[in-house]
Amino acid sequence: MHTDIHLRLHALRAADLRTEAALFRLSRAAVQPSGGLRGRLGWFLVGLGLRLVHRPPVRVPRIA
């Protein structure tokens, strides 16, 4: 493939990708994040998991 053709194809593909990225950003900006109950529940589960992980081990008393 000739160098100029390869460079032109690359420029066209880059322009297409930039256009798709801009459309994606615009569509994501239009959607309002729904972080209400779902977000609070998620963070509650994260906190619960951290408490379970950091719980001190249960020690069984030894009778000598």
What does this structure look like?
By secondary structure, the protein is mostly helical. It has a domain at 1-32. Helix content is 70%, strand content 0%. It is built from two helices and no strands. It has helices at residues 3-30, 37-53. It is elongated. The termini are far apart.
Counting helices, strands and paired strands, the structural category is: mainly alpha
Q: Which oligomerization state do the chains in this entry correspond to?
A: single chain
Q: Runs with pLDDT <50, length 5+?
A: none
Provide the helix percentage: over 70%
Strand content: under 5%
Spatial shape: elongated
| Strand tally | 0
Keywords:
64 residues, mainly alpha, 70% helix, elongated
Compact description:
This protein is mainly α and about 60 residues long. The protein is about 70% helix and about 0% strand.
Note the topology:
Elements: H1 3-30, H2 37-53
